[in-house]
Protein: Fluoride-specific ion channel FluC
Amino acid sequence: MARAATVLAGQGPAIAVVSLGGALGAASRHGLSLLLPHAGGFPWATLLVNVSGCLAIGALIVVLTEALTAPPLARPFLGTGFLGGYTTFSAYAGEAEGLLSGGSIMLGGTYLVLTLLAALAAAWAGTRAARLVLARSNDGQPR
Structure:
């Protein structure tokens, strides 16, 4: 117990902003799932959330590490908190398992592969786009 207290000492603000960001991100994800519900079909809302979240994470990390002198709690709030709560790879796994175990092998397999490839591509695209925007704003030329 003393070890846990030692590890957590001074982490109150970070824990608070991650919690707040996570709650806001999860609420945003839930709102999107209400706009794009799926009833046994392809889980478009989860795919959109995970891909857009990965795009945002890629851009955010570039902006926070290469462009700004960000406040110390910006990355925990926005990255770990908001975007961590917004993206939902646990729902992705559960939905894929549900499709596969329900006999929709092609749909489930497509969902598994599409989400993985699209999320990785989106994270790369987010970093690349942010670097291009930053380069143009710095010297007018892309890098």
